[in-house]
Design a protein that fits this description.
Helices cover 0% and strands 51% of the residues. The protein contains no helices and eight strands.
């Protein structure tokens, strides 16, 4: 869990695929609500965060849990330059993907 964030976060709500440019040392914050779309009940449980550098394979980056309303948030602080793709899968299985270009 060495890439967890601190301080200067770049916030983004998990609502679709997005690309962002960050500088090494910047943190990237993601927040969302599982099951909140289209009038569904909130989904609670585990949020799985996968990551991959460049064209490499996805690996388990971390997990987090929703609160009782299905809300979740987490931050990552990349430890190297390159392209990091994050795939976030909340308990409602509505995956989101973010491409981070780390300079």
């Amino acid at each position: 869990m060495g890439i967890l964030a601190a301080a200067a976060a770049v916030p983004l709500t998990a609502s679709g695929s997005a690309a962002r440019t960050l500088h090494l040392g910047d943190a990237f914050k993601v927040s969302g609500q599982a099951g909140a779309n289209h009038g569904r009940q909130p989904a609670t449980g585990t949020v799985v965060v996968l990551g991959k550098w460049g064209n490499g394979p996805f690996y388990l980056l971390r997990t987090t849990r929703t609160d009782g309303q299905g809300r979740y948030s987490f931050s990552v602080k990349p430890s190297r330059r390159g392209v990091l793709t994050l795939r976030i899968t909340p308990p409602d299985k509505q995956s989101q993907q973010f491409v981070l270009h780390i300079l």
